[in-house]
Write a structure and sequence with these properties.
single chain; alpha+beta; Alpha-Beta Plaits; two-stranded antiparallel sheet; 32% helix; ribonucleoprotein; rRNA-binding
């Protein structure tokens, strides 16, 4: 019983690592280089991101680059606030593998 619960916890962790696909003009141009960009958890490491992508999408990952984007300070009606920081992962896939992140829209 304990092994099944541990395996289920590992699978749930994959969905905690990947927050959402990050779709912009610049990230769609990266698809020419067989790369996909995801917003990931701030505590996620590169091996965790790689394992999550391979487990969820069933593709082979050749590289993972991460970027932490700091939130900007903005003003609205005279009051200042700060946007949230977030972490992005640029995932490079093996030639021939693709992820269609727009299929669910």
């Amino acid at each position: 019983m304990a092994k099944k619960q541990a395996a289920a916890a590992i699978e749930n962790r994959h969905y905690d690592v990947l927050v959402a696909p990050h779709i912009t003009e610049k990230t769609t141009m990266l698809s020419d280089n067989n790369s996909v960009v995801f917003k990931v958890a701030g505590t996620a490491s590169k091996p965790e991101i790689k394992a999550a992508i391979e487990a969820i999408y069933g593709v082979s990952v050749t590289g993972v680059n991460t970027i932490v984007t700091k939130g900007k300070t903005k003003r609205w009606k005279g009051a200042s606030y700060k946007r949230s920081d977030f972490k992005k992962a640029i995932v490079t896939l093996k030639d021939g593998d693709t992820i269609d992140i727009t299929s669910g829209i």
